[in-house]
Amino acid sequence: MSVSDMFIALQGVLTADQDIREEIRKVVQALEQTAREILTLLQGVHQGAGFQHIPKKCQKAREHFGTVRTQMESLKTKFPADQYYRFHEHWRFVLQRLVFLAAFVVYLESETLVTREAVAEILGIKADREQGFHLDIEDYLSGVLTLASELARLAVNSVTAGDYSRPLRISTFINELDSGFRLLNLKNDSLRKRYDGLKYDVKKIEEVVYDLSIRGLNKEATVGVGEEK
């Protein structure tokens, strides 16, 4: 084979690779649009009357996740099943965003932390690497850390809306989350930096709870929690 033939063959490989990446980008763009729609919907809970419509917003968000599952099915067909990490960078960011959104919905519904397996099911993908297109552990953890920041914001807005018990519950949840992350030996630099931001979320929520205590509103909140139970 001549040098010219060799490079023609190489160009064929490059072209095929570029075609795959372009097809992946198209689906990822659709996923990003759906993620924006879900985020816009859930952001409504931060508004004054938003707390009254949490169940309805979560229900609508889950309907959007039906679209996500369809788009994920399309994405799986765009590249060879054994080359997940070769193209992972294309969908890593949107997948982390979708993990956060799924985790936020589950928290709003039950005030619990969604498992990686449950998120994978919501998104229509697998949890185990051996099964092909899956939810990478680091992508799951990144999404959970974004949830922590969102809940810190929700704690502040809860007080503004006159819901004094929610920040206390958020504080308990975030502290449990922080304790869980402390058990991990994080090697990924990006994930480690995001985890470092968790301490600021913890501090922000603690300040909200402290402010409620100073104003005597924590007692009212405690009574309210007791009545809810």
Concise overview:
With 229 residues, the chain is an all-alpha fold.
What's the arrangement of secondary structure elements?
Blueprint: H1 3-42, H2 54-76, H3 84-110, H4 116-123, H5 137-160, H6 166-182, H7 189-196, H8 198-214, H9 217-228
Helix pairs in contact: 1-2, 1-3, 2-3, 3-4, 3-5, 5-6, 5-8, 6-8
Please identify the structural class as seen in this structure: mainly alpha
End-to-end separation in angstroms reads 78 Å
Number of helices: 9
In the CATH scheme, what's the topology name? Methane Monooxygenase Hydroxylase, Chain G, domain 1
Highlighted features:
9 helices, Translin, RNA-binding, mainly alpha, disordered C terminus, hydrolase, endonuclease, Methane Monooxygenase Hydroxylase, Chain G, domain 1, cytoplasm
Describe the structure.
It is found in: Cytoplasm; Nucleus. InterPro entries: Translin, Translin_C, Translin_fam, Translin_N, Translin_sf. With about 230 residues, the chain is an all-alpha fold. The protein has one domain: Methane Monooxygenase Hydroxylase, Chain G, domain 1 (Up-down Bundle). It has 9 helices and no strands. Helix 6 (about 165-180) packs antiparallel against helix 8 (about 200-215).
